[in-house]
Automatic annotation (TrEMBL):
Pfam families: GntR. Residues 16-84 form the HTH gntR-type domain. Gene3D superfamilies: Winged helix-like DNA-binding domain superfamily/Winged helix DNA-binding domain. SMART domains: HTH_GNTR (SM00345). Keywords: DNA-binding, Transcription, Transcription regulation. CDD domains: WHTH_GntR. This is GntR family transcriptional regulator. It comes from the Bacteria.
Length: 85
């Protein structure tokens, strides 16, 4: 069965934990303006499907982004790109 094509977040085949590699990729999207400050990023389930990874992998990657100060999560609202300071 062919599903939707998965986005690549590690095209250079770097080694490391998948959630860290995914967090680095998502951080690049923020840095390049693909996800501007204040924008809502896709939900964890949507990112899991988009990248073909486990939901826990996305959850850990999102946690890393929060720890880096790149996103803010509002309960029942979603996760948003933090303003640049």
């Amino acid at each position: 069965m062919n599903g939707p094509e998965r986005r690549k977040y590690n095209p250079d085949n770097r080694t490391g934990y998948e959630y860290v590699l995914l967090a680095d990729h998502l951080a690049e999207l923020i840095a390049h303006g693909d996800w501007p400050a204040g924008s809502r990023i896709p939900g964890e389930r949507a990112l899991s499907e988009e990248y073909g990874v486990a939901l826990d992998t996305v959850h850990k990657a999102t946690k890393i982004l929060r720890e880096r100060g790149l996103v803010q999560t509002l309960k029942s609202k979603g996760t948003f790109v933090a303003p640049r300071g």
